[in-house]
Amino acid sequence: MASSLANCNIRQVIGVCQLTCTADKTENFQKAKTLIARCVQQGAKMVFLPEACDYLADNQQHTMEMAEAMEGETVNQYRQLAKDLSVWISIGSFHQKPADSSSKKLYNTHVILNDQGEIQATYSKAHMFNLDIPGKIRLCESDYTIPGDRITPPVDTPIGKVGMGICYDMRFPEMAVGLRNLGAEVLTYPSAFTVPTGMAHWHVLLRNRAVETQCYVVAAAQSGKHNEKRSSYGHSLIVDPWGAVVAECSEGEGTCVAEINLEYLHQIRRQMPIQDHRRLDLYGQISLHSKDNNIDGIKEYEFGQHKIGCKQVFFKTALSYAFVNIKPVVPGHILSKQCSHRVVSFYSHADILY
């Protein structure tokens, strides 16, 4: 089902910006600003930037030193730009300082801004790209990046419900299918792909994610030489739900635009209803878990005279729900209640499992 924001117009133009970022934050922002404005002039309602659109430093020490908080200058500049241009912006990712100032690592965080410059959603990269070929190359994100511990539910935008990923996440179809199960219509993978892996896998991976989820896939990319040690593949893509590439940048900096047509998307899903054909009895349903997940959008449940917060509920059926006690009398016990508001019983964790 299309998102509420998209229902007013199911055909919207998006723009993708391809950058060659360096360690110069100011120059990187100015180039992005110019490209975003170009996309807006072409009618884009939402514009997508690549991974690490704030900077790509020469070494790990500089990468850490240049990182900013969510409230820092980089995000604030983009917030003001989104407001000034009345456009939604996907900040593909920036190097985010963690709250713990003593941490020697940072987050790789994707931010979606609405056209009022407000932060609509964030997602920190979950899958770490670790490449270590002795004598040739070492590029290990886990050396300086904290992996994200949550998947962000699809975000309502003017172009549809957008599922957020970053670069290496595209290699994990479970995440893409999980986002589709949560209602995603567009998947986005801002990236900084290496040249060898890009030549071999870039188009294949992105088209596969589109075909298996029947979603649009948007991948803004870094391109070209960032410093003496690092270059990126480029070839930013927009792929439709049939797996066709509808827009692509080549190499170097630039933009491409395409129309997101949700009517076409849902036509494909109706004509080939692969979601209905999944054999969940054989391999189960892919679900995405987050530490702050709310099981069904209900903020509170009743348990006698007590109110149970949504984060305590971990299992629910049509007839009952189960939740953890904040202060259990006996460790390992849970509580279960019928939806008819009659207390059923108390079970141990082992009783529930077996």
Supply database-style keywords.
354 residues, alpha+beta, Nitrilase/N-carbamoyl-D-aminoacid amidohydrolase, HIT family, subunit A, 2 domains, six-stranded mixed β-sheet, 9 helices, 25% helix, 31% strand, globular, Nit1/2_C-N_Hydrolase, CN hydrolase domain-containing protein
Structure description:
With 354 residues, this protein is of the alpha+beta class. It has helices at residues 25-41, 60-66, 73-85, 173-181, 195-213, 262-271, 274-277, 280-283, 349-353; strands at 11-18, 44-48, 88-96, 107-113, 119-124, 130-133, 137-140, 155-157, 160-164, 186-188, 216-219, 223-225, 231-233, 237-239, 245-248, 254-261, 300-303, 306-309, 313-316, 320-324, 333-338, 343-348. Strand 6 (130-133) and strand 7 form a beta hairpin. The two termini are 37 Å apart.
